[in-house]
Amino acid sequence: MQVFVSSNKSELGRRAAADGADLIRAALATQRRSTIVVATGASQFEMLAELVSIPDIAWDRVTAFHLDEYAEMPSTHPASFRKYLKERFVDKVPIGTFHEINGQGLDGNGEVLAECARLSRLIAAHVIDVAFVGIGENGHLAFNDPPADFVTEDPYRLVNLDEECRRQQLGEGWFRSLDDVPRQAISMSVQQIMKARHIICSVPDARKAAAVHRTLEGPVTPNTPASILRKHHDVRLYLDESSASLLTTTNMT
Predict the structure, then answer these.
(1) Do 166 and 96 meet the contact criterion of CB atoms below 8 Å apart?
(2) Which own/partner contact pairs does 108-112 have at CB distance under 8 Å and 24+ positions apart?
(3) How confident is the model over 64-92, as pLDDT tens digits?
(4) If you compute the radius of gyration of the chain from its CA atoms, what whole number of angstroms results?
């Protein structure tokens, strides 16, 4: 794992976006299309703003998959990740294909499982060149909260959100109260994320420092889902000084 520490969130976003763009261009130089995974949340604000402004990416040859979305979430809700990506990514670039997660009206039973199966069939036909992800305050990877399932091969799955995860969503201002935060979501699985050729992981802010410390310097364990990234052949982790503040290692740039 390569770890890059920037002085602030803006610089973090520039570095992560520039490296991600280089990886997309490299993939397009050797193949007809490139496939990426796009994440959401406050950690991705700066990176996405930079990525969509970078020139000379043939976005019309790019297929993008949505990382995760709440169950029973209409796309008009302020916390909808589909709304987030439409406003910050899909409407900003001439993307070739965007496979969104439709959480609206899903009841957590047959409908949500059918949506997981639909997405799983779609992504099975692709090799992911670049996955843009983050790390949660509880160490989650996508919405795979601890203890995460490191084994399942299902590309998309229905997951239960723990209270720490739900409190993070409230603290970021997406909801008016904890009761408003959904208890379930559709998430890309850990194993599917790990199949990506390259992973760009953006993690700013002091509130992520403990999770970053556990991810890099604790054991690889489902109790810190993001720790599995240390088993991947090419993960690039982008931190700011605040999120890196608890690290003791000097193997950073």
Answers:
(1) no
(2) 108/71, 108/72, 108/158, 108/184, 112/71, 112/158, 112/184, 112/186
(3) 999 999 988 888 899 999 999 999 999 99
(4) 17
Output the pTM of the full model. Answer: 0.94
Q: Is the peptide bond before 147 cis (omega within 30 degrees of 0)?
A: yes
Residue count of the chain: 253
Q: Hey, what amino acid is at 11?
A: E
For residue 23, the tally of other CB atoms under 10 A from its CB is 20
Pick the CATH number of 2-240 from 3.30.200.20, 3.60.40.10, 3.10.290.10, 3.40.50.1360: 3.40.50.1360
- Amino acid identity for residue 144 in this structure: N
Tokens of 115: 């949506």
What's the CA gap between 78 and 218, in Å, rounded?
35
- pLDDT one-digit tens code per residue, 121-151: 999 999 999 999 999 999 999 999 999 999 9
